[in-house]
């Protein structure tokens, strides 16, 4: 137990420190890298909760794909920090008051008896041959098949929408059309002209 | 590990629609640029097919399927039929408009149908995840449709505003739902009610969850103070898309509120009643006052929508069958009026001219008396002048609220409705008493003429004989509670 506690607290402190870094550091590239760190350590926390599949999915999907894309975008963009910081102190009091009220409300709710360890029992530790992935797969394809299909439809909408908004057929560029090149026949390229043979004089 | 194959019968319309969306997308791909109208006719055919299937499986009993994630009942079937009708009308109204503006693309039709699917999922959801996915499917399609006119800077700005605020609202909604899940340990709407009844969980947690859920819903309904996106989106989007956003999704939003607040959190009615009173009064006040100052008719109608949302919420405040069915009647009446109003704006527009200023309606009576008369009916109905449908809708909602004992609320609502009558009557004044600035003839196809006439006629006839529609709403609500 002690070892698990140690792992939990060290991972949790890394998550909190890196999350703070994400919103306080001046350089956006560092922020993104720290966000990656926060994701990796959170996936460690999920491993502690025996949610192996989700932990791996977080690393593969978020760190491997989403954050790398994000990093590229941030590196490519020319962000003017001074412009973004304008008006920060002017609006700071409002933001701080709102954030304070929200924090108090949320802590009142989350500290309430409902979420204490007396009512919510510690889940049992599963045996070694228990497969998290298999259980998730079973649920997704049986009980949750309807919402699984809906999620698939939403991805299809995202594809259609992205293509509809960004695809443009440019007419001013001079690229070659491979399919037309292959489909070309001899008659289109070669023109045989019959002309009288020239006589030598 | 036993798993029984779910009963697909209640979900036949959704399955058919999804299949047909794929057909429309592929058909459009192969039909190419010249046969774009193929998608138009296929979409109408799809909606007709869905209506046929829904009518075929209609029954008054409540049918759960997909492990209790999907529910088919009288309310969902009635709302679905209304949605098909509305979407079909939207397509017919917008045909000329979109073909003139380069929007006649396959994506317009596939996204419209995707949004329709999202609305159907919303009205027959009995699980919080299904509700959420339905609303996302609808919203994502709408965001893309607003941005479809890529060259227009206003449309792009509207789409970005819509997207950012919509994402924020979804966040609110999800946060509220996670609170409810944390307190009850279930995402099924029926079990949620049971769990609240038993009172095992702390009441405060429900209230905090409820606040977030209500905030999320108000964003989607565009109720004040979460209404800021509506005027910009209505104004910025191409009118055909504005017509779509303003009409059918309101029916789905009604179903959404019924499922989540009434069926799921009905036990907390005393808590959400107070919240809705605030939202409703603020919506009616802001909507009606700010609409007076608008010179753009699309923007004016956006504020008018906000005020109508306030009246719809009155029906929910009344709690009980009469209140909910009057809210349903109001939503249907509102959709009828919106269809007509935006339909006429599109008819007046032509290539390079949007007809979205109030002054564009000057002297319409001299240019096209019939169209002016239809607009007169719609404006009278929106203002709540008898015998139009809008009058009866307001009357029914007021009656329900009076029965619930909120006399002051009715007084406030009546006063605000009177103030609102000003800007509707101003359009009528422009149409009949001012000289036209533009004397070019208004051209439209016979199918649109039939549609607009039917629309105007429905507004009058359903206002004089509201019993049929009212009975339909009441039986839909009664059989699903």
Any overview of this molecule?
The complex is a heterodimer of chains A (201) and B (481). Chain A is mainly alpha-helical and 201 residues long. Chain A has helices at 2-24, 28-48, 52-76, 81-85, 88-110, 132-141, 145-166, 178-182, 186-189. In chain A, 69% of the residues lie in helices and 0% in strands. The N and C termini of chain A lie far apart (110 Å). Chain B has 481 residues and is an all-alpha fold. Chain B has one domain (9-479). Chain B is 76% helix and 1% strand. Chain B has a two-stranded antiparallel ribbon. In chain B, a hairpin with a 4-residue loop joins β1 (63-65) and β2 (70-72). In chain B, α2 runs antiparallel to α3 (74-100). Chain B starts with 11 loop residues before the first helix and ends with a helix. Chain A: This is NADH-quinone oxidoreductase subunit J. Chain A: It comes from Nitrosomonas eutropha. Chain A: InterPro entries: NADH_UbQ/plastoQ_OxRdtase_su6 (IPR001457), Nuo/plastoQ_OxRdtase_6_NuoJ (IPR042106).
Shape of chain B: globular
The domain tally of chain B reads 1
Number of DSSP strand runs of chain A? 0
Instruction: Kindly estimate the percentage of residues of chain B that lie in beta strands according to DSSP.
Output: under 5%
Largest sheet of chain B: 2 strands, antiparallel
Give the largest interface pair and sizes.
A-B, 27 and 39 residues
CA-atom Rg of chain B in angstroms: 22 Å
Distance between the first and last residues' Cα of chain B: 33 Å
Mean pLDDT of chain B: 91
Number of separate helices of chain A? 9
Radius of gyration of chain A using CA atoms only: 30 Å
Quaternary structure:
heterodimer
**What order do the helices and strands of chain A follow?**
HHHHHHHHH
Shape designation of chain A? elongated
Q: Could you give me the name of the CATH homologous superfamily of the domain at 1-79 in chain A?
A: NADH-ubiquinone/plastoquinone oxidoreductase chain 6, subunit NuoJ
Distance between the termini of chain A: 110 Å
Helix content percent band of chain A: 55-70%
Work out the helicity level of chain B: over 70%
Strand content bin of chain A: under 5%
The average pLDDT of chain A is 87
Number of strands of chain B: 2
Subcellular location (chain B): Cell membrane; Endomembrane system; Membrane
Transmembrane segments (chain B): 12-31, 38-58, 78-96, 108-125, 131-148, 160-185, 205-229, 241-262, 274-293, 300-320, 326-349, 370-393, 405-425, 450-477
GO cellular component, one term (chain B): endomembrane system
Membrane topology (chain B): Multi-pass membrane protein
